[in-house]
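Re: [help] complex structure
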Amino acid sequence: MQKQSIFQSKLLPYALVAPQLAIVLIFFYWPALQAVIQSFLLQDAFGLSTSFVWFENYVDLFKDPAYFEAVVRTFVFSFAIALSSLSFALLLAVMADKPLRGGTIYRTLLIWPYAVAPPVVGVLWIFMLHPSLGVLSRYLRAMGIDWNPLLDGNQAATLIILAAAWKQISYNFLFFLAGLQSIPKSVLEAAAIDGARPMRRFWTVTFPLLSPTIFFLLVVNIVYAFFDTFGIIDTMTRGGPGKSTETLVYKVYTDGLLGGNLGSSAAQSVILMVMVIVLTGIQFRFVERKVTY
Amino acid sequence: MVEEEGIRRYVAHVILWIGIAIVAFPVYLAFVASTQDNAVIANGQMSLLPGGHFFQTYYQTIFVGTSGSTREPVGNMMLNSLIMALAIALGKIAISIISAYAIVYFRFPFRMAIFWIIFITLMLPVEVRIYPTYKIVADLHMLDSYAGLALPLIASATATLLFRQFFMTVPDELLEASRIDGAGPFRFFWDTLLPLSRTNMAALFVILFILGWNQYLWPLLITTRDDMQTIQVGIRKMITTTDALTEWPVVMATAVLAMLPPVFVVVAMQKLFVRGLVETEK
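Output below.
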């Protein structure tokens, strides 16, 4: 695509793209290339010599049960976060889509958590559900649950999933509401005239028409769960107890920083990069299809 | 339209209020905790109503900081966060709008190659390249500096794409008209294109400001000095979940202060926010 009427200049366009190009090359391509190179190198314990080891870092990763567990854990977290947040947001959006008094106030009161930063989300939730001082923990214990997410891995994972899903409700709500409002009312009226009850109308008319939005949000939520949960995990559990809340991104961080294993950390980065590219690719194919509809 | 009996509407109101309560409760709790005494909170005896320590806690938080771990006033952290967020938002808009201008309004060798080079960066979030980027920033002596905080996060394919898309919809007649008036590329950009892009820029600014303010992993890595900490990094250093030394009222006041600017932006500029969110996701 190109404009018909344009300016003629030899140097000016280069000067205009230069700042962005410089930043992109220095801070995106160069580090990405470094990550790829590093992933093929092995450093000795003192960092004195490095040797080229082909795919050894990758092979080691795939043989490492801890890495495999982190992969599975990350996917479980992602789907749990996406499904819980999406279903709750959809319920709220369907309710808010009705012609209610005060509809815009509801929207305002539901969208602001988008602006809360992940580390703050972590702080809010660990405070609320802290084993010794959490306000909600009292009730959980009163119900007979031995609640201690700082010691129990499954409880810690549940806590991360709930907090991460909570933050994403507002985002999903906004897009669901926009999706619902773009469904022509005439279609729903036609279904009503045919005698379909509200529940049936939702599942046979609204839900299928909403499927592009659902699919788009599913991808966005999975990417969110992969990357943006870092701040939540870091303030709440720091990957623990044990490794029960260590996701792939968190593992890249700890292996590189604390473990000092840069080769393995780089290989993990490269694998993550490939995953992001695949996810983004899926998203773009979907966007294109939406355009042709 | 479709029949909507009173009872159904009633249920909808109830469900929405339950949703709002779930969304608001953790934040309400943080505010309440920030107005109470630490000893009471540490005992697990916290009340669900605000206490009397509001001014004391917020004064200490903003001007003094915690007495333990990091002795950095949160006011200073907020200033760091503000500078970083503004630099990211304004920087992204500035470099994206001029590169989009070049790509749409000029024809030059490697035009499409450059477009793709920028476009592909969509797929490289900072999380997947943290250590190599860290090393480059360290080699450039930009650790503990605002440039180091902002520059690696400034290149944005989304903003460039957005402006490109918008410029494509600007009618060609405008360019021809201003050319008849004798305008060159600079004047056309400044007098015609920029005023037309105002809403897009504002919507983008709202989103980018929130994203910038909420950055976490990158500032965590490259700031070592306490006085360069952003508020998101500072709050993490204040809590130690396992021991009893955490000063919870100060932590919660910091959480409230960390939420205030971005939440204010979302609520006050809701139209721009929604527009920006929907447009940047396309």
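Residues 65-97 of chain A form the longest helix (33 residues).
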